[in-house]
Amino acid sequence: MLGNPNPNRSPRTTRIDGVLVQDLGWYTDQRGSLSVLLRGDQEHLHGDRFGQAYVTTVLPGVVKAWHRHAAQTDRMVGLSGRTLLVLIDGRSGSSTHGQTLEFVLGDRHPVLVLIPPGIWHGLKSIGGTESMVLNLPDATYNEDAPDEERAPPHAAPAEGLDPYDWARRDA
Questions:
Q1: Which of 102, 97, 105 has the alpha carbon at shortest distance from 87?
Q2: Does a structural domain hold residue 105?
Q3: How many domains does the chain have?
Q4: Has residue 17 been placed in a domain?
Q5: What angle do CA 61, 66, 112 make, to 5 degrees?
Q6: Residue 35: which domain range?
Q7: How far is residue 150's CA from residue 133's CA, in Å, rounded to a whole number?
Q8: Is 66 within a domain?
């Protein structure tokens, strides 16, 4: 394999306080490919807790939004297809309250996005096929007391925030 298949890179910051992006690399040889998604020595990304790992899929054109967590941190990576991940800072005391970020997750943009508590987030498959996203949250889902707040996808997720237009934008 050419290059280091297990690099320890620093994540980059975004215009929403606490949202980090880790650029991922693919290392390919004649046997196949490898991408390291998260390392134990990346303290900024893994925190001090592991909850669970799960995969969610999104059908073409479908919007899965909005939700946020009070205490849970999510870490999302696109595995297949193209998924639009939209984040809106809903934290009332945040210096970046109301800011919106968009990421296209998938094999042509290999990144891990760290989503701290209080950030509204949603997904939309923007390709012609079902897309797949891996989430590595730092908490286990509690069916009796889920750490989530939900809002309708085509309205503002909360009072004081702008609605997001999920329509495709052509340049």
A1: 102
A2: yes
A3: 1
A4: yes
A5: 80
A6: 12-139
A7: 19
A8: yes
Answer whether 100's CB lies under 8 Å from 164's CB: yes
List the structure tokens of 124.
């939309």
Residue 33 amino acid letter? S
- C-alpha distances in Å from residue 88, one per residue of 30, 65, 117, 156: 41, 11, 11, 10
Alpha carbon distance 86, 142 (integer Å): 24
Whose CA is closest to 155, among 63, 76, 17, 91? 63
Which secondary structure element, helix H or strand E, spans residue 125, and what is its range? strand 119-125
pTM for this predicted structure: 0.86
Strands 63-68, 149-150: parallel, antiparallel or unpaired by DSSP?
A: antiparallel
**How many H helices and E strands in the chain?**
1, 13
Residue 126 lies in a domain: yes
CB 100 within 8 A of CB 156: no
Q: Quick check: helix, strand or coil at residue 29?
A: strand
Q: Tell me the pLDDT tens digit for each residue of 13-67.
A: 999 999 998 888 777 777 777 777 776 776 766 667 788 888 899 999 999 999 9
